[in-house]
């Protein structure tokens, strides 16, 4: 099973903890309840928290919201939450997926100065098709946030040449998504057929029972 729908990790596994340590060393991720601020704009966390601090006090805490796409990747998305006067943390930003909680990783080195911040991602798969997909996500971000566009949160103003480039990146992403899912399906099928003492299909050099076949 694999999916590109981002969800909050159900538990903090070793893979999740390892990724978080690479993103913000020495900091433990924690679950925070989502209590969307009425009338606030979806996903506009920096503005939502700043406005709330100005109105009610407390402070903003910058860090990363951790998402997983099952058996595909893990992602750290730049995020801001509100710290109340008693020190409690609250996620005030509405989200289209309406999660009850998020996994948040604070980062004292993260700064938001109006420019969009690219997510940090890691593949859950050894497949090159997945790694290429992540590269295209970075390519799309760099295009959408080049020059003055990096300071804009609403829409893109593109000339004809830029529009053609944007469409090309979109097609590239679409095609790579199909390639990735096809490769993931074949990989899953190879795992199902592998015997315990066979070489692992991921080409790690280990036997299946010592690699993807571990219980």
In short, what is this structure?
With 215 residues, the protein is α+β, with helices and mostly antiparallel strands. It has 2 domains: 14-106, no CATH class; 125-210.
What is this structure's SSE topology?
Layout: H1 14-23, E1 30-33, H2 45-56, E2 59-69, E3 73-83, E4 89-90, E5 101-106, E6 120-123, H3 128-144, H4 160-193
Antiparallel strand pairs: 1-5, 2-3, 2-5, 3-4, 3-6
Helix pairs in contact: 3-4
Q: What this model shows, in words?
A:
With 215 residues, the chain is an alpha+beta fold. The chain has two domains: 14-106, no CATH class; 125-210. 34% of the residues lie in helices and 18% in strands. It has four helices and six strands. It has helices spanning 14-23, 45-56, 128-144, 160-193; strands at residues 30-33, 59-69, 73-83, 89-90, 101-106, 120-123. Strands 1, 2, 3, 4, 5 and 6 form a six-stranded antiparallel beta sheet that branches. A hairpin with a 3-residue loop joins strand 2 (59-69) and strand 3. The two termini are 17 Å apart.
